[in-house]
């Protein structure tokens, strides 16, 4: 007869769990510099080079990128989108079907909800964006609402869950990337199932062959590599809605969901940069400062510019909203550059009354932080 040696069994090494691969959320210590894990994320997920603020439409390779896991291997020719859950007529469509439907192109400013995170004190440890997690592309696709109506939403539908083909683990939770929108938001006419960016099929890193575009919302809502849409009659409690992407003061705070983009203006850095510090160097003389401004809540109504780190502000001129209501706008201001050191910044206000703060709006995830940018400038003697 064999007996189990209990003492040996408990002494045996524990089989690894997901937690061994997946650290908990944390905030950096007071003196803690950005480490290799944050650098690894920053090297994968690049921002817009700020000089590319010159383009009305951001070229695809210059648009920022944020990919939680790996870029999945998706075969466009075989790819299908399923609409399931609380609908009267579940349906499955392929790319050819979607391309045969009403075709709409919208210019949409996308910004990552974590933009600005690395400037926060203390710093939430995650993708360490400064200010560059933004882009303004032209997305072409077919509106989502008619497809949902064709499937026939159940009258008690509350949330619509969008699932991507990418898979990973985050804070110990294994998952496909999934985000839900409330039904009323999913049915808004501007929401697109997009298969093209800037007139070309989506690139692998931007969600090929199909992604969701939710104009006005922070990036996390724009699900890439979209493969299913599931209508639910109970609120969705998946990780990216219930755990991540919430504004919380501390770990125990249930928080509030991150939704639409807070107003922000960026300065296109003038002059030429120092290689290491990226401090800007200018020669004295008349100079036109410019940049872009956007908000996902309401149209931008004003931009003010500072050259002294926020002590004084001057109004900028705003271009018209030619790119449409979801596109950033250009602003400009003449500046007679005289020798000295300056800290430039711009702040946007929108029609909802929101204005960009100079003080950091801190939360534990480092989300929706729209603190004013600081661009260091040295104007030479001649
Ligand atoms: N399936 C899937 N969709 C996703 C993501 C992801 O990791 N997986 N990242 C989201 C986040 S956080 C952002 S900011 C945007 C970035 O879109 P872009 O890389 O095309 O700029 O995609 C969103 N959609
Ligand atoms: Mo993001």
UniProtKB/TrEMBL annotation:
Every Oxidoreductase molybdopterin-binding domain range: 68-239
GO biological process, one term: sulfur compound metabolic process
Record Pfam families: Mo-co_dimer, Oxidored_molyb
Domain Moybdenum cofactor oxidoreductase dimerisation, chain residue ranges per copy: 285-378
Alphabetical UniProt keywords: Metal-binding, Molybdenum, Oxidoreductase
Residues of the signal peptide: none
Region (Disordered): 1-28
Cofactor: Mo-molybdopterin
Gene Ontology MF terms: heme binding; molybdenum ion binding; molybdopterin cofactor binding; sulfite oxidase activity
SUPFAM superfamilies the UniProt entry points to: E set domains, Oxidoreductase molybdopterin-binding domain
CDD domains: SO_family_Moco_dimer (cd02110)
Matching PANTHER family: SULFITE OXIDASE, MITOCHONDRIAL, SULFITE REDUCTASE
Name recorded for this polypeptide: Sulfoxide reductase catalytic subunit YedY
Organism: Micromonospora nigra
């Amino acid at each position: 007869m064999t007996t189990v040696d209990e003492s040996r069994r408990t002494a045996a090494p524990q089989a690894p769990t997901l937690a061994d691969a997946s650290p908990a959320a944390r905030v950096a210590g007071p003196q803690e510099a950005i480490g290799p894990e944050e650098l690894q994320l920053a090297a994968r997920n690049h921002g817009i080079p700020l000089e590319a603020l010159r383009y009305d439409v951001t070229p695809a390779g210059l648009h920022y990128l944020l990919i939680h896991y790996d870029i999945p291997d998706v075969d466009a020719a075989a790819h299908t989108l399923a609409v399931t859950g609380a609908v009267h007529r579940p349906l499955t469509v392929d790319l050819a079907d979607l391309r045969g439907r009403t075709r709409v192109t919208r210019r949409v400013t996308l910004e990552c909800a974590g933009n600005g995170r690395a400037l926060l004190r203390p710093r939430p440890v995650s993708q360490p964006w400064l200010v560059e997690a933004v882009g303004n592309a032209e997305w072409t696709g077919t509106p989502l609402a008619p497809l949902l109506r064709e499937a026939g939403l159940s009258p008690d539908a509350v949330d619509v869950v969008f699932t991507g083909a990418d898979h990973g683990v985050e804070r110990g939770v294994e998952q496909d990337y999934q985000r839900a929108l409330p039904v009323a938001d999913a049915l808004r006419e501007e929401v697109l199932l997009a298969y093209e960016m800037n007139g070309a099929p989506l690139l692998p890193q931007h969600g090929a062959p199909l992604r969701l575009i939710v104009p006005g919302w922070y990036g996390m809502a724009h699900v890439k590599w979209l493969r299913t849409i599931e209508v639910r009659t109970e609120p969705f409690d998946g990780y990216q809605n219930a755990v991540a992407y919430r504004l919380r003061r501390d770990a125990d705070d249930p928080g509030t969901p991150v939704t639409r983009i807070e107003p922000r203006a960026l300065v296109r850095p003038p002059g030429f940069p120092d290689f290491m510090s990226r401090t800007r160097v200018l020669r004295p003389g008349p100079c036109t400062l410019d940049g872009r401004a956007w908000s996902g809540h309401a149209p931008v109504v004003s931009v003010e510019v500072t050259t002294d780190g926020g002590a004084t502000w001057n109004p900028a001129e705003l271009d018209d909203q030619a790119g449409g209501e979801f596109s950033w706008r250009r602003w400009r201001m003449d500046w007679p550059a005289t020798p000295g050191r300056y800290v430039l910044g711009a702040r946007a206000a929108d029609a909802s009354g929101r204005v960009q703060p100079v003080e950091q709006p801190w939360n534990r995830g480092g989300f929706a932080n729209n603190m004013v940018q600081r661009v260091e400038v040295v104007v030479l003697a001649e």
